[in-house]
Amino acid sequence: MSHALELAKIAGNAGEVPVGAVITDASGNLIAEGENRKERDQDPTAHAEIVALRVAAKTLQTWRLHECTLYVTLEPCPMCAGAIIHSRIGKLVYGVDDTKTGAIRTVMNIPDSAASNHRLLVMGGILESACRQHLQDWFATRRLQSK
After folding, report:
1. What is the distance between the alpha carbons of residues 33 and 4, in angstroms, rounded to a whole number?
2. Strand ranges (DSSP E) for the chain?
3. pLDDT tens string 29-87
4. Is the pLDDT of residue 3 over 90?
């Protein structure tokens, strides 16, 4: 999660919402990383999780990532939750709840819904304070800059 937080800082410094993600294989080896790239790539799907999932699938030469763990600094949105389910990620670890668009536990619960064909192991609240503080600081700075 510490590495995902560093990626979030890189994204924030580039003008993106500061979210970072990493994926490890069954042995705990880092196989993919991603950071929000929507603005830089002009791609509405370029969320940190999606970027990391694409790299992991390419690295492993399979879309079935059932032996992998995804670490992300912010609870995934509905789009990312769907992609996580479809990738068959074995475990999701996230930092802070997203009270506006969180689709894992906070606003929606896509993994445990009838629409999910995959049971996802979820752990939230990992480095929660650091993840929350980084997001709050970034948004506070953005608000000051826009005045």
Report:
1. 8
2. 20-24, 30-35, 69-74, 91-96, 121-123
3. 999 999 999 999 999 999 999 999 999 999 999 999 999 999 999 999 999 999 999 99
4. yes
For the range 40-45, what are the long-range contacts, defined as Cβ-Cβ under 8 Å and sequence gap of 24 or more? Answer: 40/14, 40/15, 40/16, 45/79
- Residue from 107, 108, 104 nearest 94 by CA: 104
- Binding positions for Zn(2+) are 47, 77, 80
DSSP 23: E
Residues tagged active-site:
49
What is d(CA 112, CA 122) in angstroms, rounded to the nearest whole number?
10
60 HSE (CA, 13 A, CB side): 22
Residue 59 has phi, psi (to 5 degrees) of -65, -45
How many Cβ atoms from other residues are within 10 Å of residue 58's Cβ?
12
Average pLDDT, the chain: 96
8 φ/ψ angles, rounded to the nearest 5 degrees? -60, -40
Tokens of 94: 């996230």
| Contact assessment for residue 75 and residue 96, using Cβ atoms and an 8 Å cutoff | yes
